[in-house]
Amino acid sequence: MTGTREEAVAQAGRFFDHGGFTAGLTRLVAAPTQSQMDNAHPALQNYFAQLICPELKELGFKFEILDNPEPAAGPLLFAHRHEGDDRPTVLIYGHGDVVVGQDDRWWEGLSPWTLTADGDRLYGRGTADNKGQHWINISSLRTVFTERGNLGFNCKILLESDEEMGSRGLRTFCDQERQRLAADVLIASDGPRLDPERATVVLGSRGLVNFEMAVNLREGAHHSGNWGGLIKDPGIILAHALASLTDERGQITVPEWRPTSLTDELKVLLADLTVSGGPNAPAIDLDWGEEGLSPEERVFGWNSFAILALEQGDPARPQNAIQPLARAVCQLRYVVGTDPDDVLPALRRHLDARAFDKVEIAATRMAGMRATRLDPNDLWAQLALKSIGQTLGKPAALVPNIGGSIPNDIFAELLGLSTVWIPHSYAGCAQHAPNEHMLASVAREGLCIMTGLFWDIGMVE
Questions:
Q1: DSSP per-residue letters across 400-450
Q2: Which residue stretches of 59-107 are H helix?
Q3: DSSP symbol at 371
Q4: pLDDT per residue as tens digits for the range 76-88
Q5: For 305-331, what is each residue's pLDDT tens digit?
Q6: Do 207 and 338 contact (CB within 8 A), yes or no?
Q7: Partners of 334 in beta bridges
Q8: Quick count: other Cβ atoms within 10 Å of Cβ 383?
Q9: Domains of the chain, start order
Q10: Does residue 139 have a pLDDT over 80?
């Protein structure tokens, strides 16, 4: 059986139009794979065994559901189909776990575990992150297999179920299984497009360091009338320490946190991009962040510091007392050119130089994703750009790295792969929030471009 590229891409569109895509996604969304909940393992195991493996079996994949090297983390699914030693090998990555459903916070008529179509939106937990995205890729493999009779390349699939907990155990697993995971290229889909209207190829991600800053001065609270002005207030100390990390417009003041990798070449690449989260996205504050940089340079070529949470006392029931403890959970998103091993030591030096010796620092969850960026001239990146352009008749955006963080360093550095990410979501998708959704128009287009790309990989000599 030998079809044509045009027939395969057209069939991908019909698969969506006739309801095949949404029927499959309905089954995936219904599985409450909340890795952040206690006792999540049975749901995570069932997602792989009952929903994903049967799909892969029909495509001739061999598969195993494997225990995570980190006992507390969910299982991993490894599947492979070998078509010839002379054919290229593609590794596809995704994750089957989702954040908590937040069932009671969705709009009336919506449920996180029921796929609901409303105009161009497909609502449900995991539609954008990441069930809808890896379902597009698996469905596209099926289309190529059906039209051609084979894939034309060797394919390995690695799905994890702990990404929303920081991909615990993934690095250890990949280190232990280097030979099994050996490939020529990683092709994966996660995160948002640059713009919902423009297909996007992403070459890496910003790194991530989450950490806590705390001032813990004493046992118990003390009356603010009797002790105010006599004993130190941890909240005031912490507030000044936090304020020292940026200026009033959020420009980072820690020297080691300011990257040196925003080159003229990178600026030229970023000049072709326009950040957009769609019609419901917040307006970009042009007077915030690094002065003199475009919004695209700020999010793709620079570092950003954020305070994720602040805690002192109980704002709902404040007491007339000097509290003993104040703490903040903070985050640095960083690009290539920042030394991740020096992020917290540099913070310690910065604080000590300003007499904030009472401020304690500790790394927290998800502190280990490192920044990566594939060379834009990489052959696999260029193949993806050419393929998408052929399918759509217009060029895709080439993004050096997403603004968020994904465990791409495991594949790029540990496994030594070229890494090409093709996202099928958009920034306004309410990922990690109530009313998560993917756009039907983007999903349909994603099926077409991935089918075309997989077809073209099968033609590589």
A1: SSBSS--THHIIIIIS--EEEE---B-TTS-TTSTT-EEEHHHHHHHHHHH
A2: none
A3: P
A4: 999 999 999 999 9
A5: 999 999 999 999 999 999 999 999 999
A6: yes
A7: 207
A8: 18
A9: 5-205+371-457 (3.40.630.10), 207-278+286-363 (3.30.70.360)
A10: yes
